[in-house]
Amino acid sequence: MVIITIVSSVAMFFIPATASGKITFYALYVLGGLFMGFAMPAQLTMIPLAIDYGEWKNKTSSGGFFGAINGFTQTLATAISGGLIAAILVIVNYVPNVTQSTNSLIGIKFMMSVLPAIVISIGLVIFGWDMTDKKHQEIIEELNKNRKSESKDAQEIKNRIIS
Q1: pLDDT tens-place values along the chain, 163 residues long
Q2: Is residue 134 within 8 Å of residue 46, measured between CB atoms?
Q3: Nearest Cα to 120, choosing from 26, 43, 24, 21?
C-alpha cells in the first residue's frame, strides 16, 4: 500500500499543467492519500507490539513513556512541517496573490509530490521488522508469567513490611 502512495506521489510531479493534467493530479493525490490512510491502522497497531517487545527485551515497562513521546513527536512533526513548508516557499520565491514563476511552480509541485515520497520511503525500513503473531504471542505469555512472579514478590515484600 505504501508503495502505491510513493509511486503516485512521484508521478504527480510529472503531470503537465493542463486541464486533463489537473484532473490526473487530483486523482493521484486522492489515490496516494487513500492508500496511506489504509496503512495508518497498521502503523498504530505496531506501537503496542513495540512496547511489549521492549518490555520483554529490556525487562522494563515503558508504555507510559511511549504514549507521551508519541504525542510529543506528532506535535513536533506538525511544527517542523509548517516551518519546512514556509522555508521551501521562500526558497522557490513564492509570491502570494500573483501568477507564479515556472521555478516557483516546480518547487511547489516538488514539495507536494517528490518530497513526501522521499519521507514515506524512509518509512519502508519498517518492512525489516520480523514480528509475527506467533512471536508476539510467545512474548505476551512470557511477560504475563514474569508479571505474575513480580506480583507475588511484591506481595511478599508488602507482607514483611506490614508484619
Answers
A1: 788 999 999 999 999 989 999 999 999 999 999 988 887 887 778 888 888 998 999 988 888 888 889 889 999 999 999 999 999 999 999 999 999 999 999 999 999 999 999 988 988 887 777 888 899 999 999 998 888 887 777 777 777 787 6
A2: no
A3: 43
Cell of 114: 517528490
Smallest CA-to-CA distance from 51 within 67, 72, 73 is with 67
Q: How far is Cα 154 from Cα 148, in angstroms, rounded to an integer?
A: 10
Cell numbers given for 22: 489537473
Is 134 in a helix, a strand, or coil?
helix
Nearest Cα residue to 113 out of 2, 4, 6, 30:
6
CA distances from 69 to 31, 55, 66, 76, 123 (A): 30, 16, 5, 10, 18
CA 144 to chain CA centroid, Å, is: 29
Residue-wise DSSP of 68-111: HHHHHHHHHHHHHHHHHHHHHHHHTT--TTSPPPHHHHHHHHHH
